[in-house]
Amino acid sequence: MKIHLDEVLSTNTWALEQLKDGKNLQDGTVIWTTRQTAGRGQVGNTWESEADKNLTFSLVLRPTYLAPRDQFAISEIAALSVLKTLCSILPSRYAKHLSVKWPNDIYVGDDKICGMLIENQLQGTEFAYSIIGIGININQEKWVGGAPNPTSVKLLSGKDAPIEPILDEVVSRIVTASEALCANPEAMAAKVHDDFVAHLYRRKGFHPYVDVKSGEPFMGKIREIEPSGRLQMEYKTGEVRVYGFKEVHFVLPCGVTKE
């Protein structure tokens, strides 16, 4: 089912309210809009989206086949689905620049084109549902809220792109990947994870970061992503530290994406 809302504060919030009110949003239900006025990001961040220029939507999944400890697989298939969709619609010269910035932002070079907020609800020891909230910059060209490094499909391609076909392709990819994961959880989870790691932003070499808790800057190398989604970071000293979401800050270079 696909539900279009003319305007909404947040598609994730709308979906959560429906579920809490006892509405039966079936597996694969999509809630989408081009007018989201109070989009939410990870850990209290906001998502700026100019009216009728971008795609904001939420997809409800019921991945009861996954153990709660493996829930990061949902984030991985969502991120890869967006990345591969963008790879299919952007000029081919940008394909090698597309990556997933941990945990699930999509970057083109050093610029952000997509953000996600994934909210999982458990019921006992099983999944009740997962709400995958995704915002993709499609035709926006200017940002007024101080976003440090945004880009869009139009800025990269030089032309407007139709929004609903992009929605349909992303959703199709996520649902197909979810069904494959359901059919063979162990093998597909390993395959998805390897693909995710292969597409990571800064997956090679040492780069600048800041430990959020201590404020300490450091040069680190991504060593692994744990099944829980936590980031293993190797310091130049050889020490390995593990970070959860919003516990490490990526220090980004100034300037625009280079081809």
| CATH superfamily (homologous) name of the largest domain | Bira Bifunctional Protein, Domain 2
The name of the CATH topology of the largest domain is BirA Bifunctional Protein, domain 2
CATH class of the largest domain: Alpha Beta
Beginning-to-end CA distance, first to last residue: 39 Å
Strand content: 25-35%
What is the N-to-C order of secondary-structure elements (H for helix, E for strand)? EHEEEEHEEEEHHHEEEEE
Q: Provide the number of structural domains.
A: 2
Beta strand count: 14
Give the class from helix and strand content and strand pairing.
Answer: alpha+beta
Helix content: 25-40%
List segments where confidence is low: pLDDT < 50 over at least 5 consecutive residues.
Answer: 255-259
Q: What is the mean predicted local confidence, pLDDT?
A: 90
Short descriptors:
259 residues, alpha+beta, BirA Bifunctional Protein, domain 2, SH3 type barrels, 2 domains, seven-stranded mixed β-sheet, five-stranded antiparallel β-sheet, 5 helices, 26% helix, disordered C terminus
Describe this structure in words.
With 259 residues, the protein is α+β, with helices and mostly antiparallel strands. The chain contains 5 helices and 14 strands. 36% of the residues are buried. It has 2 domains: 2-198, 2-Layer Sandwich (BirA Bifunctional Protein, domain 2); 207-250, SH3 type barrels (Roll), CATH 2.30.30. A hairpin with a 5-residue loop joins strand 3 (39-40) and strand 4. It has a 7-stranded mixed β-sheet, with helices on both faces. Strands 13-12-11-10-14 form a 5-stranded antiparallel β-sheet, with no helix packed on it. Helix content is 26%, strand content 30%. It has helices at residues 11-20, 72-89, 153-157, 163-183, 185-198; strands at residues 2-4, 29-33, 39-40, 46-47, 55-61, 98-101, 105-108, 111-123, 126-136, 207-211, 217-225, 231-235, 240-243, 248-250. The model is unreliable at 255-259 (pLDDT under 50).
